[in-house]
Amino acid sequence: MRLNGKSALITGSARGIGRAFAEAYVREGATVAIGDINFEAAEKTASEIGGNAYAVKLDVTDLASIEAAVKAVETRAGGLDILINNAALFDLAPIVEISKASYDRLFSVNVAGTLFMLQAAARSMIAAGRGGKIINMASQAGRRGEALVAVYCASKAAVISLT
Questions:
Q1: Mind listing the domains of the chain with CATH numbers?
Q2: What are phi and psi for residue 32, nearest 5 degrees?
Q3: β partners of residue 50
């Protein structure tokens, strides 16, 4: 129980890698906010994980939603100790077919969402005076381009640069 007494907010954690993080953190004793744009899926995941997992509605493209999620963790868990910036999207398309809408959507979630989540978490941690950890999920794809996911690769390169 290495994380007893710690609280974590994990973005995009209703499924996939984010859910796996949540399961592991709860197993290690943390109180975990399952942050996801799909609140019903977050509630289901929190219920299935059990323990100290709970759902938080979170749209990382919306500053008010980000602030509300961090406040919810502060209120429920007494502060925020760990943020895992996991929410991300990717689209499969040849580079000559990537639309502006797709580009904007990916950079809004993958880059701006990461930046503004880490800002909100860092402000909370600094105000509490107890430090904390911020983990930004990147990808090897951010270190090299790959066919059909050029915008995803570029967005993950930006995340690496923010970290």
A1: 7-162 (3.40.50.720)
A2: -120, 125
A3: none
